Amino acid sequence: MVMLATAMVSALVVGRELIAEFYLRNQVSPAGIIVNGGIVVLFLLGLARVVATLMRYMAEEAALAKFVRRINCGDPYALMGLSRKRLI
Fold this sequence. Notes:
The protein is mainly α. The protein has one domain (about 1-70). The chain contains three helices and no strands.
């Protein structure tokens, strides 16, 4: 996850001049900046949603691994200590 974020930030830093040229300097009217800004905001919201969902999946996977490990050890209380928010 950190590597993906680093790659995205690196791509933005390297291409910032191209992005500025395309989205800010070559606009015919101020409406273009508003529309492009809205698109960027929607993209960032969607990206945040994907990251949040992936983090939730990571928590589910960790809970499942903990449960399976306890079952394999013969623990009769395998569900004890797992969050009630988990799907198990």
